Amino acid sequence: MDQYAKRYELKDKAKDALSGNYGTLILGSFLFSLIIFLVLFLFGFGLFLSLLASLYTGGAYSVGALRIFQVGLIIAHLLSGFLGFGTAYLCLKLACGQPAYYTDVFYGFQRQNLLKTLLLTAIRLALCRICSLPFQYFTDAWQETHGISSLWPTLLVCLAGCCIYVPLALALDITYFLLLDFPDKNAAGIVSDSFRLIKGSRRRLFLLQLSFIPLRLLSLLTLGVGELWLEPYIHMTYTIFYLDLINPKKTPTPSC
What we know:
The protein has helices at residues 7-18, 22-57, 63-95, 111-145, 148-172, 175-181, 187-198, 202-210, 213-220, 227-246, and strands at 2-3, 249-250. It is mostly helical. It has one domain. Strands 1-2 form a two-stranded antiparallel sheet. The relative contact order is 0.14.
């Protein structure tokens, strides 16, 4: 019988793997965050100025600036997929005791990884978009009327979208690790394997993710500086979760 590690055991193993390696992962996470921030800043600066102008003049903001920012969001999402793949690579190397460097976060941009990483990231982006479309439709309707009668359907559709998206996203959370372990498999095979492996462990992963909320709230008190230490810890814990998922402890089956 398979016996999976408890949450505190996963976190303890993550701390052990990070011992002496925090600096490497902090630099990698910082590069990750900096690149995404710069992309959002460049594509969102025009919208920011437009919003300021609309507040000052009382006019409408620029729709063109909004569309540019939406393009920036898509680009940032795709980049975060490549950088997330590289972060998974970095964490796996550290967890397995191999030499690692902060520049490993760019591993997803190597030629042999480009297409599959792009496909896996696009699948997540499409999934998120599809699940949010009904919510966007009802939100637009509510903004036109601002009535209570249209608010409740909006909230219910949002809840339904989350109930559909979260279980699917939990399965896709391990796809980058699977691609690293099985680079010869295509994207469809990786997705299929991720759903097979995560079966019965979605609740464990979901509760593990929720367990970091208090630390995230505490990091707000540091104006985000604490995230430099928190993000490596979270990434490494997810890596340990994956390693435990594919290689759980075996407990002897009691004889009759």
